[in-house]
Amino acid sequence: EGRFKSQALLDESALAACMAYVDLNPVRAKIAMTPETSDHTSIQYRINAARVGKTPKRLMPFSQSSKQSMPQSLPFTLTDYLQLVDTTSRYIHPTKRGKVEHTLPTILERLNIEREQWLTLTTQFEACFKHAVGKEVLLEQYAHNQHQQRVQGRQSARRLLG
Length: 162
What we know:
This protein is an all-alpha fold. The protein has one domain (about 10-125). The chain is about 50% helix and about 0% strand. It has a two-stranded parallel ribbon with strand order 1-2. Helix 1 (about 10-25) crosses helix 6. The N and C termini lie far apart (about 30 Å).
């Protein structure tokens, strides 16, 4: 189908942006008011599992520490990801109750992405990158490995991922 496409996620920034983009689709579409009330999303599944002290078996686990990533785990903690998605959803959805300070969440500081860049990534993800997503040097490596003459997404990588 023309609506769906595959994009390579080449680094932690790309992974976090894509996860948030997908988890926030129902909020952007005004199907749900908050990420935790958006049915059929991984964030809702993870929150419900965490409430009863479990980890979802069908989803890759988060790292247990912000300082080091475990093999076979997402490179950030569940707490950091929930904070990231919550803050992002409040910026996207300005009518939501509660004033949010304009400080960057911990994960954005670690990923070295500014708030405006993050908002662009999570609201226009597919428009910013066509085939692969990541910092410029990783896009260059990807293009080389794929035997591509041109590095697609270079300008978006510079502007959004540094």
